[in-house]
Every structure is written in C-alpha cells, then in structure tokens.
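hey so u asked for the seq, here:
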Amino acid sequence: MLGPLEVQTERGWTSVGARKWRTVLAVLLLNPGQVVSTDRLIEEAWPGQPPSTATNLVSVYVHRLRRLIGDADGRILVTRAPGYQILLTPEDLDTQRFAALTAAGSSELSGGDARRAAELLNEALALWRGSALADVPPSALISAEADRLEESRFETQALRMEADLACGRPAQVVADARRLLADHPIREGLWMLLIRALHSSGRQAEALEAYGQAREVIAEELGVDPGAELQRLYQQILAADVGHEPPAARPQAQTGSPVVGTPPASPGRAAPALAATQPLPQLAQLPADIPDFTGRAEHVRDLRDLLAGPRRADSPGAVAVAAVIGAGGLGKTTLAVHTAHLLRAEFPDGQLYINLLGASQHPAPPSDVLARFLRDLGMNPASTPVGEEERSAQYRSRLTDRRVLIVLDDAKDAAQVRPLLPGSASCAVLVTTRNWMPDLAGSRFVDLDVLEPTEARALFAGIVGAERAEADPEATSQVLNACAGLPLAIRIAGARLAARGGWNVRTLAVRVSDERQRLDELRVGNLAVRACFEVSFASLPGSGQPGGVEPARAFRLLGVWPGPSIGLRAVAALLGQPESAVADALEVLVNAHLLDSPIPDVYRFHDLLRVYAADRARAQETEQDRWDAIVRVLTWYLHTMEAAARVISPQHTRVPLDPPPPEVRPLDFSTLDEALNWCEAERARLVAAVRLAAESGLHEIAWKLSAAAMSFFYRRSHWTNWVTTHQIGLTSAREAGDSLAEAWMLNNLGMAYGQQRIEESIPCFEQALALYRELGDPPGEARAATNVANAYFVLGRFSEALAAGQRSLSIQRQFGKRYGEGITLDNLGCAYRELTRFDEAIECLRQALAIFRELGDRDAEADSLSDLGAAYLGRGGTDQAIASLQEALVIRRDIGDRHGQARTLHRLGLTQQRAGNEAEARELLYEALHLLEELGDHAQSAQVRANLVTFTEAAG
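ran it, structure tokens below
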C-alpha cells in the first residue's frame, strides 16, 4: 500500500489490474479485521451515482480478488454480513510493518540508542515505493488515508533526521531537510532541523541565513512571524555566535512528534522551554474519582492521547482541547474526572475544575469563572480586572508555560468555553457538554455512546455483587436491556437493588419491564434518569422563526413512533409540517443529544429517551394530536410504499387507496433503483409501521401496507419480513371483518410460505381461493388457483399442478389478465418439463416469454428464460439451454435480483458442466456459492457446495 497497490502471491508481487478491484481491496485493507459493508464498498467504488448492478459487481470483484490472492475458499477475504472482512496478520501489510518499525525506532531514540534508531527508521522508510495508494482511484476514504500515510512518512523522515543528528551526521540532515522543505516550506519543525544541522556543522552564517529564509517564507505564506520555538532557537544561535559557544545540547525527540522544537519532559509530550518564575498555589480541584469505574477503555485512551500525547507537527504551539460529548446520563463527567486523575503526573502544576452548569437555566458566565480561576491562580481579588477580555488575558498570562489541566464540566456552547482557554501549549483543556460545539476551533471530540453489553454487565455486577448478578442471568439481562446501556440508569438500578436485601434481580426486572413505569423505577436518592433527561428537554429553544416547528414538540410527537429509527420525510408527515422546518427542529435535538442521526436525514432515539419522549407526549399532547400524528405518518408510509410497488412490480394487483390529505406528501419514484433503494433503507421501519397500525386499531392501513410491501419483499427475498407483516395484516383483516382483505393476506402469505415451508402454503391458498369464489372475484380466484398450481409443482405433485394450472389459465384468459396468463403458462411449462413432456413445456414457456416481453416485465422474463433453458436441456438442446440461461443472467444482474442471479448461476453452471465446459462451470458455481452465502441462504448454498464437491470428485 506504500506505493502502487500490490499483493504477494506464489508468483511474487502482482499488481491489481482493474481500477474497481483496487478500490475494493484498498478499502478492505484499510480496515483489516473489520467487517466492511457492501454499501460502504459501493460508496467508495462509485462515488456519486452507483450503477443498479453495483451490489452484484462487488460480489464479482471479491470473487476475482480471491482468485488473485489464491484464496478460493474465502478464508482470508471472508464473506461476513453485511459485507466482507479481510483477515491478516500485522506482518501482512506494509503499512503495519512501517508503523511498527517507526514505533520501535522512536523507542530506541528515546532510550538513547540513536544508531539503532536510525537503522530501524531507515528500514521503515525503505518500505515506500512511491506515493501511498498511488494507483487507487481517489475517494473520500482513499484520499484521507493516503494523506494520513504520507503524514506518517513525513514524521518518520523527521524522526530519522533527529537520529542522524544524534549520530553526528549533520551533513546528511542538511541534505534531507532541504529536500523536504521544497515540498513543505512552512513546516517550522523542518526549518529547525535544518538550522540545528547547519549550526552543528559549524556553518553558523548559513544557519542564520536559513532562519531568514524561514521567516520570509512563513510571512509570505501565512502572514505571521515564526513561532516562539523557532525564534528562541535563532536567539540561541546568535548568542552562541557572539560567545563562540554552541547552543545548549538538545535532548532527543520523543515518539510521534519529531519536529517539535522544545525538549520533552515526559514521553510523547513537549515541555515548556522556559521555567515558570513563580510557584503556583496548589491546584488540585478535581472531584474524587469513583472506585468502580467500568469500561470506556478506548475513550480513556483517546482522551489521554489527545491531552498528553504527541503534538501535531504542523501546530506544536496549539493548546490541546478535548471535548466529551453525549446525552445526559452517559457518564461524561465520570469519564472526564477519571481521565483527569490518570493525567495528574502529566500536569504537575495542578488541575482546575469547574461545573459550568451549561444544561441548566442559568449557565455560569465566563467572566465569573475567570474571576474564580484568577483567584485560584494567586491573584488578589482586589486586583482582578473588571472586563472579561482583560480577565482572560491575565488568565492566559498566569498559565503561560505552566503544566495545568483545566476541566470544564457541562459546558453550554463554544462561546462559554473560548474565554477559558489558556494560551500556552503546555496546558490542556478537557470539556464535557451535551451539545455539539463544531465552532470550538482546534478541539477534538470524543462522542460518548451507551456502554457495550459486557461493560454494562460488569458495572452492574460491581455495584450489586457478582454473585447476586449471576444468580439469575436472564433477569440480569432483562434489567440491563431496560437500562439500554445508559450508565446512570445502570447505577440507579444497581443502587436500588444493593439497598434492598429482600429483593432479588428478578424483582427489579419485573418492576422495570413496564415501559410506562420504567422511568419512575429508575430513581434513587437524588439520582433519576427522568430528571437527567428533563434538564436537556427544559433547555430546548423555541422554533427560532415564525411558524416554525418547536424542537420540544417534535421531540414529544416522535415519542409515538415505535420504530428503530425514522427518516426526515416521515417525520415531516408525522408532524404535518414542511421538511425544511422539521429538519431545523431535528438538528436542534441532535445538537442537544436528545436525538441521534446515524446517517443524513435519518434519526433515532436512545431506548430510554424514546420512553421519555412517549411519556412527554402522553403528558403534554392531547390524545387527538397523538392520534392525528400516527394517522399522518402511517398514511405517508402506505402511499409511498404503494408508489414504490407500482414501479417494482407494475403487473401486480394494486392496493385500493383514497387520496392522501394535503399535509401528507408521499414520495414518487421514477426508476426501479430509486424504489428498491428507498424500500431497502426503510425495511425495518416498514415492519414497525405495520405493527403500529395494528396496535393502534388502524387495521385497514395494517393490511394494505403489508400488501403494498409484498412486491419489494418478493424482489429482494426478504421472507421473514414478508411473513411477519402478512401475519399482522391477516389478523387486522379478520379484526376488521374484511373478507377481501383476508383473502388477499392469505394468498400473499401462502406465497411467502412457499419460499421456505411449502406445506404450509397450500392451506393458505385454498382458504384464499374459497374466499375469492364466495366474494365473486374471478381475478382473485385466478391468482389463488395459479399459486395452488405452483405449490403442487414445488411439492412434486406435477399432475395436480397441471390440473390446477389449466383451471387458472382458463380464468385468466376469460378476463384478459395477460400477466396472470403468463405466470400460469410458465407454471404449466415447468410441470410439463418435470413430466418429461418437453415439447409441450417449451411451447408453454415460449408463450409465457412472449407475454412478459410484451408487458415489459423483465423479472418475469428472466424467470421464463431460465425455465426455458431447463426445458431445452431436458430435451438435449445444450446450446439452446446455455443461450437462454445466459440471457436470463444478464437480466438478473441488470435489475439487481441477487437471489435470482444466484439460482441462474447455479443452473447455468450445471448446464456448462453437462456441455463439458469444466472451467466455466466451476467458476459459475463458485460465484453462485459466494452470492448465496452473502444472502444467508444456507439451504441453497449447501446444495451448490454439494454440486461442487461432486464436480471436483468427478474431475479428479
């Protein structure tokens, strides 16, 4: 990766030929050991507008890459839902080898062995063969990672020059520094290395001239003077030149920041160049750390690195500011205080701490905070300046070159924090806040989330005792599920249990099981989850513009939605307001950490915040307002889903709908890809909408939404969602006493069962058939009869399938239902084929194919072509069979039907094997296998794998 992308195989180093292959492989290599979703690979390979077949193409690229690296079995490049995972050792990647050698070299330099350090660093730099990822097409990820690697290369070069200086090779450093300055003229650290090397060579005049050049370049490019360290070095050289003495010897640089100009006082951190002239009063203001701090190891490590780690080479004088951001109850203060205690040795001049009360109605004014800090820093209160700006200046002056950590807890916004930032890079600032502060320049953010399940269990066990927590693991899981990973909730639940010796975990689990009472149960002493949320909720601003959406009302009404997440347009329907106004309100909620936005225009609650929002809705919104919101959002889903279904399966029977009300603006779709992509993104929310409709007594919406979604579930093989929604829809149809709806749900449910448990499908079809006859609905009767015929066929009852199919064909032709006629003819053709009546089979299938081409239904056309190929093969027409199957495969790939593509690949592979084309057959079967594994179709993949084993044994 440190140059053009190459892989080492049995044939030696090999380039990756195709551009898209390189992109897919590079993205996987940049995430070694991690599962990278297919969607992410598509996003990187086709920035902007991916083709409709992108998912299939990624599968093909992975298959080709496996062949390239000699991994036919997929043990290195592994299929792992929802994408792929590449399994490597640290020695397998030149980037990891480079990082390891650099770290080792830095360690040796810190330990005083400059010669060994130089050897290791030279070995690291020798791994480079050009620019990082030189031949990989640029994308957001590739460009960012290439830049990061190039920055690492630069830092290693600077570190190697430090080692060369320590080894007495200043002439080499002069040459290297001048070469790097040609590309990085404003890197002050490089100028310092050059000047030091020139001075060490006895070339004082050139060293002073180099400083002049640096000052000129920096002024021209940045409009500022050189930094304090470079100026200090210049003064030292001037003084040494006057006194004929070299400047003070410079200790070796530490890991990660080789170009910082001042000697480090502790590993990885630059110390102040000038000693403080007056001692500070004792500063030890941190609250006590908690003894049972649990988890958050990665966050603690990140904060320590941000606050006391190596300085960035391009801004060594910047103050390190880290902000811990998250919703109330996530343990921001606990994390900050714990980390600050761990950093006490790094900041020997002390720690300042204050609660800024940012989430309250009366946040602390920065001017008042500065007055307190100045007093703590030794200023006579009578001498404290009046104005905030002067106080801030005095504050910065008193902290200059001191090693002080400032902890600003519960900040409201960046405006409250800015005056409290020191001006000296020797200090660091740790902020906690509930609100995003993107305008806090130079800060680095740690976004806090809920605890991982293992961390949550460990925290709970630490409070109540491991024996008590493990006595009933199921009840403990129920309590932790109710707490949803929120540290405050877990602490409260644990404290309640610990204080009640007569309770067991099961008692607590029962008490928190009711969502409506959960927040009342999660309260002990002066700790309460509800109160924590109310602080954030009460501080929400108004809409900000006339007629806008109030964030507080948006929050409350979102509480009626039970789904895992919700999209912006659905929220607009829920609130009955324009999208632009709704988006502004939602962003306020996201900034306040009352709502999360995992991807653009999609929003979700933390589980306990959802409970709180529902509680606020019941308390502050009328029953009619809640009902209207539910009706609006479900109506939006119903009409939008039906619009998608019209594009996905234009021949399917349409769900009868009344026009939506004017405040509900359903989506429309112009292409199949648009419709399928929307349905895929909304899949879990569609199921939630069906469930909400049934639970709210909106039974007509429940069954109609299920019926509308069927086309999508069928196209993308989402059998579980299909069955779940239609079981709910069937119950709703019966609750409403709607026989037509019941027949519709039974027919569709039978189709879903037919994919996996065919025996259960026939009773559904027969009940639907009886209802359609009773209602006098011939088209519905014909659909059910066709499905009965198909079920008999799958069960191997081919004669019965013929009889049912012929009955259905007669009805379809009588009422001019061309699509139904085509489906029935296809079923008849398959039945004739299985009865070895191949001529009759081919005739039926040709008629079906003509109908589907006439209707422009490419999905059904591919089905008929595939079935026709099987009929040709049965009659001995191998070439005709291959031609039909290849045509079907092209359509499957073009329309993005991955399941149909896998089935066609399997059938085509077996046909090629029959024709004696062994290499082509093997490749087709492997491609089918990989696709089925991605889809999680274990039954079909086992069948293909068995065919491959048989094929291999026969070939051997």
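The domain at 297-447 is CATH 3.40.50.300 (Rossmann fold). Confidence is low (pLDDT under 50) at residues 242-277.
lmk if thats what u needed
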